[in-house]
Amino acid sequence: MTPVPVNPPPVPLPRPGDPKVTPALVREHGLSDDEYRRVQDILGREPTYTELGVFSAMWSEHCGYKSSRLVLRGLPTDGPHVLQGPGENAGAVDVGDGYAVVFKIESHNHPSAVEPYQGAATGVGGILRDIFTMGARPIAMLDSLRFGSLDKGRNRYLFDGVVRGIGDYGNCVGIPTVAGEVYFDDAYEANPLVNAMCVGIARADSLVRAVASGVGNPVLAVGSRTGRDGIHGATFASEELGDDTQDSRPQVQVGDPFTEKLLLEATLELLERGLVVAIQDMGAAGVTSSASEMAARGGTGIEIDVARVPVRQAAMTPYEILLSESQERMLLVAEPKNEAAVREVLEKWDLEAEVVGRVTDDGQFRVLEGERLVANIPVTGLVNECPVYDHPALESPAVAELRKSDTRTPAAQDDAAPSRRWRDLLAAPSIASKRWVYEQYDTSVGTRTVRGPGGDAAILRLDGTRRALAMTTDCNGRYVYLNPKRGGMIAVCEAARNLACVGARPLAITNCLNFGNPEKPEIYHQFKEAVGGMGDACRALGTPVTGGNVSFYNESPTGAVYPTPVVGMIGVIEDFDHAVTSGFKVEGDAILLLGAVGGELGGSEYLKAVTGEVTGNAPAVDLESHRRLVELMLSLAEKRWLHSAHDCAEGGLAVALAESAIRDPELSLGFSVDLDPATFPESEDAPLPALLFGETQGRIVVSAEPAAVESIAAEAERVGLPCRRLGSVTAKENGLQIAVGTQVVRLGVEEASSAYYDSIPARMERTGRAEDSG
Amino acid sequence: MRIGVVTFPGSNCDDDARRAVRLVSDEDPVYLWHKSHSLEGVDAVILPGGFSYGDYLRGGAIARFSPLMSEVVEFAESGGYVLGICNGFQMLCEAHLLPGALMKNDTLRFVCKHVRIRVEQTDTPFTCAYEEGRILRTPIAHSEGGYVADAETLDRLEADGRVVFRYVDAGGVASEAANPNGSARNIAGITNERGNVMGMMPHPERAMESILGSTDGMGVFESLMRAASPVVTR
């Protein structure tokens, strides 16, 4: 409840030197006429220049979620194990044994487009702070990345810089980067996507919420000093990228992972000792958002004196201090009796702390510059009355047309040898091994990593228990582009399959919704449909959404990115001895397919390779059978009948089989598989490439002792899913063989390995680190 | 037998080192803080991995000047056992307790993966639990791990049996392909002249449990326990 002030709040006078608020200045701040009128209504007067800046940042798409809020209401956010849903620094779920897992994903797309190294690094820093301010120790990072083609120098430069930025930051703080995905497609040209997810653990009964309370409690600024970097970053994130975007470099912040590590340790120590009332990262919109959001949650007011904020540069104005996005800063509220103890902990970690304000009871966000009042805004108006929009939504007729494209004829007429297509797909950068990336990340620090990158999902043990956590990020933007609703469902389903493949029960998701300009009807259509699809899949699989991030305006002069709603999913393995990995283990093992052979080529990597285009409909997705598939996998994993399990995704069955064979370079094995129409009647009329490379959903390739085949098939029958024997694991010398009728497609193990593992290193060595625009 | 693990600001393998000590010892490791001037009577000191003081200048370059490091140097010079892992190895070189230096990897990139190292010496307090020639699988994770020294120093290290670990391939050959960072003569770990100080780039503390993929690092901590136990009764 917001206390109603008895007297009208004092009015700040224009500050000497500040520009006059004119209609042009209002527009420059990205506020529409209607939005400006609402500002005037909330204040009951004209805003000062400082107040205009504050509203502009808080009502930017990035902070205000004004185009997404209505649509996001359709997502399920509740469940029996949800401890914290959306609205806090991060979401949290109960994973048993008294542990909570705290996790969230966030985008840093625009900064990374301009300055890949710092853009990505500070993205990691920001999401880390969201986790440890909840009282959780970060134990893992994941990264979901999208770039344009590696054939262009500029894209290689962005890719290289982003990977270095993520690595240098996470490695220094000492958080292992354990999973993620990287896709390359022209659609991400000039507007790469850099989404970072962090997972932390806390005691379930000691989660901390950022709620300012206790009138008179001091508010402290902690950590790095405030500089002029990142001013209006939130607004920058809420615009399309233009030709002049390089001029925005000053809006990109610079990261200092060492200070972050100190902040992490100090914060956890403070929270463990119960010394703080509330704490929040000064992230997007800096001190403005952290102060006003903490006050809004607490139904209090808050007063900040910018003259007391430690600054890095002389003569910073209130406007600059309030909107700076300098990194590694936190705002915390403590009780006066604990102030000395708080300072002692911060001093121990060599961190600077200054009292910069106090909690008040008048519901106002009041900003002073020494004696001078420079802003005085009702907290509720600022934080909760940001306008929300339901934009017009209309599917692009061109995309509707694309969906109808004939995908089978190009496959039927493809005269390239299937084995060559197979090899080329293994070398396609979106499919090829990302070892070049993850070897630059510390994946084992913390001694919890049971399985790091390279498999279907990462596995981390839960200290002192038999349980393990599994985590993954997934999204195929092409599917979402062709069929937003299906694409949204597939992103959730693929994540669930990946967790199921390692033997984990999916628990909850966080999402990072990367889209173009929502004011364009075709983009808003994509957004509504994709979120709708995600919601349906989350309900079917029992995985609520506990938070996330929306990133609109991912457009460059060449157009919008593919709609890319990335799913970060968390699951639990009850006993880490039940964990399953993706590589074949033993010669002579039976290979089984759970699910149908299928043969859908819409949006497939194969079709793109053959035609150069992304066409057709996204593969069909059956939510109920996915739910069963997860149950089946869990039961098989628990019985320890499986030697391996691997999801079929981009590149289809042939790529999944090859990956299982060459997963462990020191244990290369071959296989012989027969897609005999007697066993697989659905394969009868499909063109060969469709059978090999089609991306039909809901399929998992498993291997097991031949003696276990009957039991596995019986278990599959019990849940009502097809399970048929594809063939056997063989010695390496046999190579990789798939027979379809009389045709046999064969690839040598060495050839497959070299295509898969050498593709990205070879492309990246081409130009080293040079930035060229080629 | 009390083993102390130092926490510098920016250390991030200190907890992992403590966990490793607990896996081989009944006694809890002693928490040593960089600002302190006391080693609290420990029998051995571990300088853990991480990015002490941010390492923005050069790995270990600032840590060398921390208050506790002067105690560590004194301790080492009087024969106390000191093990430096990764960033700890860099500190030992910076503090001149070990010869040579650790340069940026020849790939100019951070590298993290499992490598193989061969135990070249077993008459050290850090490797006495291993049999000679044993090949260990341990993770590495560093961007400045290329060991360098002048030819004379390298020759002396070899002649005195102070090269303790070397990067090798699966067949045990110290090949160029097996060298992950451009280290001279594939050197992964060395001791000082007296043999009581060792630095190594690989992380034995991350190879202590089969669930994490390897138990081959166990021997380093077992050796230290054996060597530093004041009284051995059987």
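qc> DSSP finds 27 helices and 28 strands in chain A.
qc> done
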